């Protein structure tokens, strides 16, 4: 009788140990699955043109922000977009699109975002959502270094001004003249200043100064910046998960110093300061 009771108790103890071990194993499995699910939840909620990729557009004509070198897209915008994609856990896929139709391309789902030095404006915000800014710049007037007729912004009245097609600078130019020439790239416009084909060009301060340094264009600025501009990533309005992920990536880049490294590499300074 005692021996039977002993065997019964032993079987009971072993059964309880096996049950506890099984429960613990199940809990660990469920926890691991839950963690993996949480890690992938943000990406799975995103609406992407190509699974596993962040496809982002730019004109490819805006040196040093975005341009082609040996048939490869390079520049500040490209590096920022690549870093954002990597932090989200996506493969970066930069593409080009003509600037005048770049928002239409986004809304038509040709790409997931525009990371091409687009100024966040109220008018554009009616069509797309904007991220937090990834750099700050300003609209600036450039003229030929040999131009002696334009000394102040008031002297722009009635002059021929060049701007990039479908840019915010078209409206800036209208404040001074109706003689406005639009170009597919600001660089082309700036190149028309020294020969005198244009009296002035309104463009991003960074673009103009970089053209002076890198291309040796004999141009100069006139007056102060026309306005402060916040440059941001544009995303379709029905893609909140992607917008939040991009904002987090930008914030993390700034916090850990990566943003400053990229900005300093291209411009010698932190463009968010």
UniProtKB/TrEMBL annotation:
It comes from the Bacteria. The keyword Phosphoprotein does not apply. Residues 1-19 form the signal peptide. Keywords: Lipoprotein, Palmitate, Signal. One of its GO terms (cellular component) is membrane. It is found in: Cell envelope. Pfam families: SBP_bac_3. Gene3D superfamilies: Periplasmic binding protein-like II. The keyword Cytoplasm does not apply. Belongs to the bacterial solute-binding protein 3 family. This is Transporter substrate-binding domain-containing protein. It comes from Lysinibacillus antri.
């Amino acid at each position: 009788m005692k021996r039977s009771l002993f065997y019964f108790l032993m079987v009971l103890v072993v059964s309880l140990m096996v049950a506890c071990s099984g429960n613990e194993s199940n809990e660990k499995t469920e926890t691991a699955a839950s963690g993996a699910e949480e890690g992938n939840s943000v990406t799975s909620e995103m609406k992407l043109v190509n699974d596993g990729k962040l496809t982002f557009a730019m004109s490819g004509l805006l040196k040093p922000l975005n341009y082609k070198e040996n048939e490869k897209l390079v520049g500040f915008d490209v590096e920022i977009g690549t870093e954002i994609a990597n932090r989200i856990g996506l493969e970066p896929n930069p593409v080009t699109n003509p600037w005048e139709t770049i928002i239409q391309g986004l809304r038509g789902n040709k790409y997931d975002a525009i990371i091409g030095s687009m100024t966040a404006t109220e008018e554009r915000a009616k069509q797309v959502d904007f991220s937090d800014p990834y750099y700050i710049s300003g609209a600036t007037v450039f003229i030929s270094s040999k131009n002696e007729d334009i000394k102040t912004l008031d002297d722009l009245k009635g002059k021929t001004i060049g701007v990039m097609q479908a840019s915010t600078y078209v409206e800036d130019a209208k404040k001074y003249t109706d003689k406005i020439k639009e170009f597919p790239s600001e660089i082309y416009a700036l190149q028309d200043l020294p020969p005198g084909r244009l009296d002035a060009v309104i463009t991003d301060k960074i673009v103009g100064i970089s053209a002076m340094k890198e291309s040796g264009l004999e141009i100069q600025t006139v007056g102060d910046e026309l306005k402060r501009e916040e440059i941001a990533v544009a995303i379709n309005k029905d893609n909140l998960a992607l917008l939040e992920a991009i904002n987090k990536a930008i914030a993390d880049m700034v916090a850990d110093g990566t943003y400053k490294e990229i900005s300093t590499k291209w411009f010698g300074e932190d463009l968010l300061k």
